[in-house]
TrEMBL record:
CDD domains to which the protein is assigned, alphabetical: CAP_ED
Residue ranges occupied by any Cyclic nucleotide-binding domain in the UniProt entry: 8-77
Residues spanning the membrane: none
Name recorded for this polypeptide: Cyclic nucleotide-binding domain-containing protein
Source organism: Streptomyces finlayi
SMART domains for the chain: cNMP (SM00100)
Top-level taxon in the UniProt lineage: Bacteria
Annotated PROSITE patterns: CNMP_BINDING_3
Pfam families, per database record: cNMP_binding
Length: 155
């Protein structure tokens, strides 16, 4: 688990973060709960308060590998921002999770009404997206390429 300033909620300017937090809803998930399935409708997202969430991806004929584990302050879900609003990964609570939940439609409307907020949210989610895609690439190469991703220790 690696939280960086560029991908955590703290990456947003304080006034935008405060506006989003006004519509947040506190939720809890027991360990083992599926938050969403790859291919499902992306209608919300979460910021982890406590616990950990595993992102996974479907690989035909194999068990879904964990791509990344997310924890405190991290965004769970980015597909809600981009049409056709379909989850690109799956997510499961690895431990009991407490999180802030956001309704995607409400946030998209807020972003439409305030271009500065929209730009900040888009840039934040874009950084998260870039990070997640790189994590997925590295993880899949580690698992399935003949010599891995090359990022690990060679033997």
């Amino acid at each position: 688990m690696m939280t960086t300033l560029s991908t955590s909620l703290n990456a947003l300017p304080a006034e935008h973060r405060q506006r989003l937090m006004r519509i947040a809803r506190e939720v809890s998930f027991p360990a083992g709960t599926r938050l969403f399935e790859e291919g499902g409708h992306a209608d919300r997202f979460w910021i982890v308060r406590t616990g950990s969430v595993a992102l996974d991806t479907h690989v035909p004929g194999r068990r879904s590998p964990v791509i990344e584990t997310l924890g405190h302050g991290e965004l769970v879900g980015w597909s809600w921002l981009f049409r056709p609003y379909v989850w690109q990964f799956g997510a499961e609570a690895q431990t009991p999770v407490r999180a802030y939940e956001f309704d995607a439609t409400s946030v998209r409307l807020m972003c439409d009404d305030d271009p500065a907020l929209g730009m900040a949210v888009s840039q934040w989610v874009g950084r998260v997206l870039a990070h997640r895609l790189q994590a997925a690439r590295t993880r899949l190469l580690d698992l399935y390429a003949p010599y891995g991703s090359g990022s690990g220790v060679r033997r």
